[in-house]
Amino acid sequence: MSHDVRTLVLLVIVALVAAVSAAVAIGSGRRGGRAEVVPLARGATLLSASVWVLLVFGASVRVNGAGLACPDWPRCFGLLVPAIDWPVFLEFGHRVYAGGESIAFVALGFLVLRRADLRARLAPWFAAAAAALGLQIVLGGLTVLHLLAEWTVASHLVCGNLFSALIAVIALELWEAASPSERVEVPGARALAPALAGLVLAQVALGGLVASSGAGLACSTWPGCNADGWFPTLSGLVGLQVLHRLVAYGVVTLALVAAAIGRGRGRFGRAAFAVAALALAQMALGVANVLLDLPVEVTLLHTGGAAALVLATTAMNHATFRAPIATEAVKSDLVTA
Ligand code: HEM
Question: Which of 8, 41, 75, 278 has the fewest CB atoms in 10 Å of its CB?
């Protein structure tokens, strides 16, 4: 199968996985409660799933070497709609898809924020997501104008994941507003959950640097690095990959601790289990990337895995820190609904 067809097949599979995950998330969303908020929660969940697809789509632009297929920005070859070949399809398609996501985000914001009962709780999250989206659009443009400089590629990846995390928070808050739940306090969660989220985001930044600097093949063996021991240096391209591996071991260790302390403890426990499973899968994909010389499929799955890990750590933090909505007034609403 050619490189192009493999990318296309993988993108279709990624879109199907996102659609099924969104359907499962929507199906398992608590029912009852304030029925009129449920469609908004569903819409936000779909938006969150499609942002995840967008992140993998973005990576497919990079792995296919299509990052400069449109040499200018915001137009492409000075045109609003350029002639389409495979690289332009990826690069320009990524821009069009991102444009569609931006419109969907604005529409969701309008529908949610016009409701006085949701505004106070959701407005700060929409403001943060709007700021991340604005920055992401600028970074996307800079990525093209600075000819794929490492810092623009890495910060575009981090900012995209931050936007994705904020949309996930909005979806989770809307499900909570639709049908409040009790929060279970888990000892240690208030330290572990933010530590994991921060470490995963730092790892996404490092991964972006590894990918854009060509450090992906600087160590071509695992667990050692080119027969020079496990951690030969922290400088240069080899050092960048070694650091990426070190942080991965830190993420996996913390994720396993979180899963152990969260066992059987409600939403935190389920999110912690997902974080641990995804961290282990992500490790395996990272190792496969190195041992198999960065095949397209593995690289795209590795990006998708990182984005899923960001979503799972977001859910874990939401389970830990969300303000309880279950006031007596809301509870009595629920009983009468
Ligand atoms: C928590 C675990 C990990 C996370 C969250 C993570 C995340 C990432 C991300 C976000 C990228 C950039 C992808 C892109 O630009 O599209 C990346 C690239 C990369 N990662 Fe990881 N990673 C993890 C573990 C590992 C491990 C354990 C290894 C190797 C032993 C590894 C090897 C690589 C390589 C080689 C690349 C470059 C791929 C390329 O050049 O296209 N990763 N990682």
Answer: 75
pLDDT by residue (tens digit) across 133-142?
999 989 988 8
Query: What are the tens digits of pLDDT across the range 143-191?
Result: 777 767 788 889 999 999 999 999 999 999 999 998 887 778 899 999 9
pTM equals: 0.91
Q: Does the Cβ of 64 fall within 6 Å of ligand 1?
A: no
What is the domain count for the chain? 2
Residue 138 and residue 67 share a domain: yes
268 CA → ligand 1 middle, Å = 26
Output the residue whose Cα is nearest ligand 1's atom 17. Answer: 207
Examine the domain organization and report whether 301 and 204 are in the same domain: yes
Distance CA 282, CA 297 (A): 13
Distance CA 207, CA 244 (A): 7
Ligand 1 atom 36: residue of nearest CA: 216
Give the structural domain span for 115: 1-183+324-337
Same domain for 41 and 128? yes
- Tens digit of pLDDT for each residue in 249-293? 999 999 999 999 999 888 999 999 999 999 999 999 999 999 999
| DSSP notation for 191-213 | HHHHHHHHHHHHHHHHHHHHHHH
Mutual angle of helices 150-178 and 86-113, in 10-degree steps: 40
